[in-house]
Amino acid sequence: SLAEKSFKYVIVGGGIVAGYAAREFAKQGVKPGELAIISKEAVAPYERPALSKAYLFPEGTARLPGFHVCVEVEERGSFLNGISLILSTEIVKADISSKTLISAAAETFKFQILIIATGSTVIRLSDFGVQGADAKNIFYLREIDDADKLVEAIKAKKNGKAVVVGVGYIGLELSAALRVNNVDSTMVYPEPWCSKLKIFTASIAAFYEGYYANKGIKIIKGTVAVGFGTNEKINVKLKDGRVLEADIVVVGVGGKPLLTLFKGQVEEEKGGIKTDAFFKTSVPNVYAVGDVATFPLKLYGEMRRVEHVDHARKSAEQAVKAIFASEQGKSVDEYDYLPFYSRAFDLSWQFYGDNVGDTVLFGDSSPTSTTHKFGSYWIKDGKVVGAFLESGTPEENKAIAKVARVQHLAQNLDKLATEVLTFARNI
Ligand code: FDA
Ligand code: NAD
Predict the structure, then answer these.
(1) Burial category of 76 from C-beta neighbours within 10 Å (exposed 0-12, middle 13-18, buried 19 and up)
(2) pTM for the structure as a whole
């Protein structure tokens, strides 16, 4: 049998969490040989959001090593000092009680402290029993290998046609990326508007739909793909009976956290691994961070799971700080946070807080406006609990973040909007 390797700290998963945790471990003075990152991907941690954006651009294309998390070290050809990066290694069995992980190649890894950072995987149409959904030229996007396949297809099918199934984050970002590559694209989704991004109210969605339509993207709402036929082209069969012909199909129908390795070994809640405000699980010395964690979201006094990059980064830093603090008999503040964002075409939005209660739209949300600077507040119990802003400057984004964080009283909303849009900081 292969030699057993032993580390003080092991991170399972080599994505956003692993990259930001490694950086924080280095900052905290981890010693050479103490930390290992085990990843099934073949490359060091990188900024995953680039895959649906600049990685697909025809110009100004992002490529590794340009968007590794620890890019400065990657460019010099090595990872952070003394941290073992164990790549192309999938963990297939985890036994927390004996502190052992086993890889697909039957290697054994021992740990004293474990960070679970396996992230999410895609939900596939075949999971819903859609016929032919695993055919060639039907693409999903999660890891860099998926992105490479998509780039190849875009090159091979220049000026071709694409159908994008599902219009969540992936759908909206990829329809835009396909369009800028001169691929004619049609988005298909079940909802009456692109509302699955739960923060998209009907009026916010109307802006994006209008904007996308003006860019030449076709939109088919209220139906789903029920089957695929392939000859030269792919025939996308819709539930309403229509058949769309495509060279490329991109599917973005959601993600699910990867928890199976740890089933029955750690407590779960709301579909994720339950943690405290320091990302400690129900088992001592085992942490769960990023997409997999269901943690107390301080601002709302509620347990939540969040699939966004900024949370992955910050929760990684929080967990590592907490690990070092507890070793020194110190403590760190409870986790407290929450913005997220998306970018497509020349659009870029940020959202802070919670999307509950009534909504109020402000600014110019006409799809043909030249500034497309507009936003929305969510009002609950007389307070602003959430705020969305399209095309904000960094100062404006900071201002709306503050409105949501302090839960500004929902009086005089017109004035508040104007203040945000004129860089008011004295809120
Ligand atoms: P992440 O998925 O980054 O990493 C998990 C790692 O674990 C992967 O390397 C995986 O291979 C590995 N792994 C899993 N199981 C394993 C096993 N058994 N053994 C070994 N390794 C294993 N968010 C946002 O706020 N704004 C944005 O613009 C975007 N854009 C975006 C684009 C695309 C294409 C995707 C797929 C996602 C986004 N996101 C986003 C979401 C964001 O990227 C996501 O929330 C974080 O990557 C989560 O970080 P984690 O480290 O938890 O998982
Ligand atoms: P999503 O949950 O955002 O959207 C899923 C979409 O698929 C929705 O429109 C939904 O209604 C639709 N859908 C569901 N079932 C369907 C079916 N049978 N047929 C057709 N449509 C169907 O998920 P996603 O866009 O796939 O994103 C995956 C993950 O990546 C998520 O964790 C997301 O947070 C993350 N991500 C985030 C960003 C960002 O924050 N900017 C960008 C890209 C990806």
Answers:
(1) exposed
(2) 0.91
